[in-house]
Design brief:
heterodimer; A: 297 residues; alpha+beta; Alpha-Beta Plaits; four-stranded mixed sheet; 9 helices; elongated; B: 193 residues; N-terminal domain of TfIIb; three-stranded antiparallel sheet; three-stranded mixed sheet; 5 helices; 31% helix
């Protein structure tokens, strides 16, 4: 029977320590997306919608396969189709990339979130939104370098891929991974996925004429829980704007780091100053004019 | 220290209030998740009805097949033990739940008469009787006993049979036996199960 809990290691907007932090030895889960074998069939999209009981929405047609321009608050997993002309020989590459939450080890959304417990990171690495605690400020949208969290305009709650916490906590793989018919999606521990991705990238470099093939696991966000094998790891932008060196925005860092502490110091300092002032000068004495308005005795 | 009963109450009340105010909360250690929606659902193995690849699927229905439960499909996903797809599915197969739970799904036989523009409902009995009568008439009219060279062939070339991809070996065995008995030579199905 389902226990349906995961131990937490990071909490947004939380004062004090996080009880789960560093207390448990647990593997980090990871999705590996091999963009070189993706055929853009969208089975992962449908599996995601089916498993999470999400409604099917309107699609658009603008003469491309991109029938939905970006992920939505109720559409968490989207294949991005990109046409890229290679500089070497002018040939066309049709690149497909499964776009979803990257489950960063140092998530920008979590850093930016001011609501206690609205965004949490489990010890297995999954970053999850707890809509019950969300206050709808939308700072996570600013904090995310991959533009993933999306707000439900009606309820003002933010949603994104959960990496199927309900399945993973029971020992199952995420729904998208299971469905993939070409086997371009893999799921396992981060170590195993890095190993597998490295081998595949090596194969592409040595046997498939992709000298720049490599693994996308950006260190700017501490590595991600979703890693890619790319034909050309030096140009991740061609895969529908995958940032080359994603970072948590400096505004979020400044605001949540030095500014936050400055604010705390100012607040506590103000209180102390108030107290010291009271000790030194005592309560404010009423002046003559206040007692006798107009100065008349 | 030897507290009295009154002291004990004081200490626990103040202590409890302090814990509540200053925080003694194990909740953040674990987070509640959505429970696995198929945790105790019944699993039924089946075959995807779309293409000839015939992927194995597991259909999850609510309830544990107890007498008083009316099962309803809640989820469909690939069968990891199936040798063909090993758990994977294409986007059409992955949407099978929508195929089963669909208000536009046909649940009874319908017929469109020659020259007609609309489908009309027909009972199973009437449908089978009509099919049987048409098969009989077609076969009687077009049965070929001998070919041009005089060889006995006993065939019925004007009837063909097509089967779906979920047809099993056993079903197809019966199809071949019954159709060959009528002399039907054009037999095909997309089952590769």
């Amino acid at each position: 029977m389902s226990q349906a809990t995961l131990r937490v290691q990071k909490i947004s907007g939380h004062a004090g320590s996080v009880p789960g932090e560093d207390t448990q030895r647990e593997y980090t889960v990871c999705k590996l997306i091999d963009t070189t074998t993706c055929i853009g069939c969208k089975a992962c999209e449908v599996a995601c919608m089916e498993w999470n009981d999400l409604p099917f929405g309107e699609t658009v047609f603008d003469n491309t396969y991109q029938t939905m321009p970006e992920t939505r608050w109720n559409y968490w997993n989207l294949i991005l189709f990109n046409e890229h002309v290679r500089e070497e020989d002018g040939s066309l590459m049709w690149l497909m990339r499964k776009n979803q939450c990257m489950h960063c080890a140092e998530p920008g959304c979590l850093a930016a979130c001011p609501a206690d417990g609205a965004i949490i990171q489990y010890t297995n690495g999954i970053v999850d939104f707890q809509q019950a605690n969300c206050i709808g400020c939308g700072y996570c949208i600013t904090g995310c370098p991959f533009d993933i969290p999306k707000m439900n305009p009606k309820t003002h709650r933010v949603f994104k891929c959960t990496l199927c916490t309900d399945r993973v906590s029971e020992g199952l793989e995420p729904a998208c991974i299971k469905s993939c018919p070409t086997g371009c999606l893999h799921f396992g521990t981060k170590d195993d996925m890095l190993d597998l991705a490295g081998k595949r990238a090596k194969q592409l470099r040595e046997h498939s004429h992709f000298p720049n093939a490599g693994v996308y696991d950006p260190p700017g966000v501490g590595g991600t829980g979703v890693i890619y094998v790319l034909h050309d790891a030096t140009k991740p932008e061609i895969y529908g704007g995958l940032p080359k060196d994603p970072h948590v925005p400096w505004t979020v860092k400044l605001w949540k780091g030095p500014l936050k502490w400055l604010g705390n110091v100012a607040m506590v300092g103000g209180l102390i100053g108030l107290f010291v002032h009271y000790l030194r000068y005592g309560p404010k004495a009423r002046e003559e004019e206040d007692i006798n308005p107009g100065g008349k005795p | 220290m030897n507290p009295t009963r009154r002291d004990f109450f004081k200490i626990t009340t103040v202590g409890g209030a302090a814990a509540a105010v200053f925080g003694f909360d194990l909740k953040p250690a674990f987070a509640q998740l959505r429970t696995l929606k198929i945790a105790r659902a019944s699993e039924t193995r089946s075959t995807c009805p779309y293409c000839s690849v015939s992927c194995g699927v597991i259909i999850y229905t609510i309830g544990d097949r107890a007498k008083n439960v009316t099962p309803q499909v809640v989820h469909v996903e690939g069968d990891p033990d199936h040798p063909i797809n090993r758990g994977t599915l294409c986007p059409k197969g992955a949407s099978l739940e929508q195929d089963i739970l669909n208000e536009r799904r046909l649940l009874k036989p319908q017929v469109r008469r020659p020259g007609g523009t609309d489908w009309e409902d027909i009972s199973w009995d009437d449908a089978l009787n009509e099919i049987a009568a048409k098969v009989k008439k077609t076969r009687d009219d077009t049965f070929i006993e001998r070919d041009a060279a005089g060889h006995t062939v006993n065939r019925c070339e004007s009837i063909a049979w097509t089967g779906g991809c979920t047809d099993t070996n056993e079903f197809n065995y019966l199809v071949v036996k019954s159709m060959r008995a009528l002399g039907v030579v054009h037999l095909e199905n997309q089952a590769r199960v």
